[in-house]
Amino acid sequence: MTNNKHILVVEDELKVATFIKKGLQTQSFEATIASDGEEAISLLSEQNFDLIILDLNLPDMSGLDVCKHIRENNTRVPILMLTALGTMADKLSGFEVGTDDYMVKPFDFMELLVRVKALLKRTEEIPQPVEKLQVADLELDLDEKVARRGGNVVELTAREFSLLEYLMRNKGKVVSKVDIAEKVWDINFDTGTNFVEVYINYLRNKVDKNFPNKLIHTVVGMGYMLKNK
């Protein structure tokens, strides 16, 4: 992976933004600072960036809203969110709108750098041939990022889409909550939280609720399975 990548740092705290920019430049990255959401959106409309480091608490709008705007126009650019809020609920809010990774302030720059490089490496991997996943009358178009059931579009969030993709790629297999947390959210599973169940229920309401043939099944004590009957 070459380091001549252009990174947008969306951060209103000048000291923090400058610290990140200088650190990235020492690693041969190009970095541009946006001090608020509007400036970030304006910059994104004018040029392409290889990665975005996005603060959650901006003076003019929430980083979540900025992330939503980005994802409406670009589903591929990696987004690393920075915030002083580190609860599971906060992280889930970020993942829900399309964040790829999440770091809590204060942070160690070397860890930030490792995460930046990991996200960039993912985007540089040789793309797989365009494909569509299908189970019964459920279809997932991985190129258009669209789900359909019975020929009708199923509106999914970015995280719901990722979860459904994981289940469909493992159709007929039991996947545990730990598997889902690690593969879909890229985090260690905390047995004291129920976010996996919450998102499985979101999917069931959108994918199975109005159809007699239920595809998402619970395997008691083991996890979940997507299968046709």
Binned, the helix content reads 40-55%
Tell me how many strands there are.
11
Instruction: Indicate the structural class.
Output: alpha/beta
Please report which band the strand proportion falls in: under 5%, 5-15%, 15-25%, 25-35%, 35-45% or over 45%. 15-25%
Task: Please work out how many helical segments DSSP would assign.
Answer: 8
Give a quick account of the main beta sheet: strands, pairing sense, barrel closure. Answer: 5 strands, parallel
CA-to-CA gap between the ends? 44 Å
Low-confidence stretches: none
Instruction: Give the C-alpha Rg.
Output: 19 Å
Give the overall silhouette: elongated
**String of helices and strands:** EHEHEHEHEHEEEEHHHEE
The order of strands across the largest sheet is: 2-1-3-4-5
Give the mean pLDDT.
87
Task: Tell me about this structure.
With 229 residues, the protein is of the alpha/beta class. It is 41% helix and 21% strand. The chain is built from 8 helices and 11 strands. The mean pLDDT is 87.
List its salient traits.
229 residues; alpha/beta; 4-stranded antiparallel sheet; 41% helix
Please write out the topology.
Blueprint: E1 6-10, H1 14-26, E2 30-34, H2 37-46, E3 51-55, H3 63-73, E4 79-83, H4 88-96, E5 101-104, H5 109-124, E6 132-135, E7 138-141, E8 146-149, E9 152-154, H6 158-169, H7 177-185, H8 195-208, E10 216-219, E11 223-226
Parallel strand pairs: 1-2, 1-3, 3-4, 4-5
Antiparallel strand pairs: 6-7, 7-8, 8-9, 10-11
Helix pairs in contact: 2-3, 6-7
